[in-house]
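# nightly structure sweep
# worker-07 picked up a monomer target from the shared queue
# config: single-sequence mode, recycle default, output format = structure tokens
# input follows
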Amino acid sequence: MRRTRIACALAFGFIALASMAAQKNQPQLRTVRGTVVDKQDNPVSAAVVYLENRKTKVIRTLITDDQGLYRFSGLDPNVDFEIHAELNGDVSSNRTISTFDARNEIVMTLKLDKKRAMSSGKMARSFALLSIPIETNYFGSVTCVESPV
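# output follows
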């Protein structure tokens, strides 16, 4: 009977140690949060915050709340991310969240201090939203196409 108790206690202790070791080896997920502000440092509501996974190129977006706050959670600490905000043609600088940054919670203020420059890709999307037929050639040039009426 005494040996059974000792064996159970040892087994329980071994299981507890193994589970703690397994939890220690799992990476802690990250959170990135902050505020979007204008040139005068006033919080900006309804700004769109873009977070790009640099490994997969997947982009997540959020819209800031009434206080200009945003929050992305559940981020892989083994991947670099790029973040910026936009509103009505104003854009913040691109900021990088690096795998070398060991913090689990990163706080960033994104300041809308530049005007967005339209690239041919964004221009093509703008034309598409206006229902203007376009063609893109191999070199990335955009040409408007006459629509048969």
